[in-house]
Amino acid sequence: MILDNFVLYRPTRILFGEGQIAAIGQQIPANARLMITYGGGSIMRNGVFEQVRKALAGRIWVEFGGIQPNPAFGTLMQAVEVARRERIDFILAIGGGSVIDGTKFIAAAIPYGGDPWEILAARRSVVNEAVPFGCILTLPATGSEYNAGAVISRPETGDKLDFHSEHVLPRFSVLDPTTTFTLPDRQIANGVVDAFVHTTEQYLTYSVDAKVQDRIAEGLLLTLVEEGRRVWSEPDNPAVRANIMWAATVALSGQVGAGVPQDWATHMLGHELTAMYGMDHAQSLAIVLPALLDHQREGKRSKLLQYAERVWGISQGNEEQRIDAAIAATRAFFEEMGMPTHLSGYGIDDSGLDDVTAKLDEHGMQLLGERRNITLHDSRQILQAAL
Questions:
Q1: What number of other Cβ atoms are within 10 A of residue 47's Cβ?
Q2: Spatial distance between the Cα atoms of 99 and 40, rounded to a whole number of angstroms
Q3: CB-based contacts of 134: which residues, under 8 Å, 6+ apart?
Q4: Which of 331, 337, 347, 384 makes an SS bond possible with 290, Cβ 3.0 to 4.6 Å?
Q5: How far apart are CA 309 and CA 297, in angstroms?
Q6: pLDDT given at position 4
Q7: Pairing between strand 149-154 and 159-164?
């Protein structure tokens, strides 16, 4: 099999580089009834909000802050109520993937006629329109600034669900690498690992002779390994920050996975771990991926061998030894980025694993992976191996 038919939606305008925040006034209609969304307030301390204020001098807007990591449905519905009351017709999101994901939901929920929870729970797109929005990225990780997907949590019910719609593609995204200089080390590590796993989910499946996508994926993985290591020794190097930021954006832009089989089982398991234990999204991915690759080594054999040689330079030994070495290298890189790769690293034992698989079942995740052959029993085995 070669490439399947595919469609890429890409109306988002990227404004990349230092100083690009100053250009947002040209991207937002002059008469817009504007809402600005953000997270915990770091943008007030790192100078980003002041740049926005100058760029939008003379405009009036409504602010909504406090969007959490793993954005919570209840918080977002408060923003929806404000936006409806103020008749908001354009939104500017300032932050990382959680703020942008949350803003996508807000944009879709404002005009939605039914219960907005249906946007997530329907497991199919019910979004036919959305309030337009743009974003200023301050934490590279999820690629949400350049794609049509979002993941939203509902902590009180233990749900973490995604939705996708071309209507929530950002109209523009500002990517200024200098905004990342004040990020804590944990956030930088999260971004590198998240982008790395996004790439492997679209690459480590089975071969369909898609050489362009393979080479894009391998280039991203090599970049993330190289720059992920350099960021600790060269924290003030703008080129390192720029490469990480662009790699994270491209990783989930649709280009890597266009027309090729995709996995996403690591993300589905990771979402349940995040919802149940409150760990960061990337932390859950670092735990699941090595265990999943080992469990699925037969179905992924040819790609794992390609990954071993092209990304990690592993060409010696028999096939099993090379696959073992590639998985070990992946695990070691995550650990090098400060990410434990076992649940025990977070004090988690096997007492809650049945609850995790029950949530997978509840969310319709009975069959996962590129071949839809990872059963609930397999998911339980992968989690057990990740202890």
A1: 13
A2: 10
A3: 24, 27, 28, 90, 91, 92, 93, 170, 171, 172, 173, 174
A4: 331
A5: 15
A6: 72
A7: antiparallel
Structure tokens at 84: 């409806």
For the record, the structure tokens of 75 come out as 């918080």
- Gap between the Cα atoms of 26 and 136, Å rounded: 14
Classify residue 150 by burial, with Cβ atoms within 10 Å: 0-12, 13-18, 19+: buried
Q: What is the DSSP string of 10-60?
A: --PEEEESTTGGGGGGGTS-TT--EEEE-SSSHHHHSSHHHHHHHHTTT--
pLDDT for 2 equals: 61
Quote the longest CA-to-CA distance of the chain.
67
3-state helix vs strand vs coil in the chain, percent to 5:
50, 10, 35
Residue 241 to residue 9: CA distance in whole angstroms: 27
Question: Which pLDDT score, from 0 to 100, does residue 124 have?
Answer: 82
Closest among 62, 136, 51 to 99, alpha carbons compared: 136
CATH code for the domain defined by 13-179: 3.40.50.1970
pLDDT < 70 regions, the chain: 1-3, 5-7, 9-10
Q: Which of 338, 340, 363 is nearest to 291 (CA)?
A: 340
Q: Which fold has domain 185-386?
A: Dehydroquinate synthase-like, alpha domain (1.20.1090)
